[in-house]
Amino acid sequence: MTSYRISRASASDADRVTALVQASAAYQGEYASILEDYRVTEDYLATHPAFVAHAQRDVVGFYSLIEYPAELDLLFVADAAQGTGIGAWLVEHMLGQAADLGMTEIRVVSHPPAAGFYERMGARRVGAVPPSPPKITWERPELVFDVKHPPRD
């Protein structure tokens, strides 16, 4: 049985996270332009709440938040790890981090094929973001997660 853990991303994770993002089958074909030459840098990881899911030494998932305004910036699960629950686990972790940061809701501008996943995780669709050529020539679903805060004693 494979054991997984989530930890804060560090500068040393930048290349592995970039490789995870670049390898995503969800961004091939018509969606390839959005990730062309995209890199997750050491500086990005140092300045954003960013977390990686590990299976032994492999990075199998990743997410990052923008703190203001609150937004899920990136969330990726390795193609081979999809369907294992890692994506749901990352969303659950992200919502906990958002609560710790005092966020009340998190905006998600979704990759179109991923919108259903976010809705299954509890996000509600609030609109759509129009294309922004030349890289993004398609409309993207806009969703919001409401962040629940534990009751105070």
TrEMBL record:
**Which stretches are annotated as coiled coil?**
none
Q: Which Pfam families match?
A: Acetyltransf_10
Signal sequence span is none
| Top-rank lineage group of the source organism | Bacteria
Alphabetical keyword list: Acyltransferase, Transferase
Which parts of the sequence belong to the N-acetyltransferase domain? 4-144
Q: Which residues span the membrane?
A: none
Kindly give the SUPFAM superfamilies that the UniProt entry links to this protein: Acyl-CoA N-acyltransferases (Nat)
State what protein this is by name: N-acetyltransferase
- According to its UniProt entry, this protein's organism is Amycolatopsis oliviviridis
Q: What is the lineage of its organism?
A: Bacteria, Bacillati, Actinomycetota, Actinomycetes, Pseudonocardiales
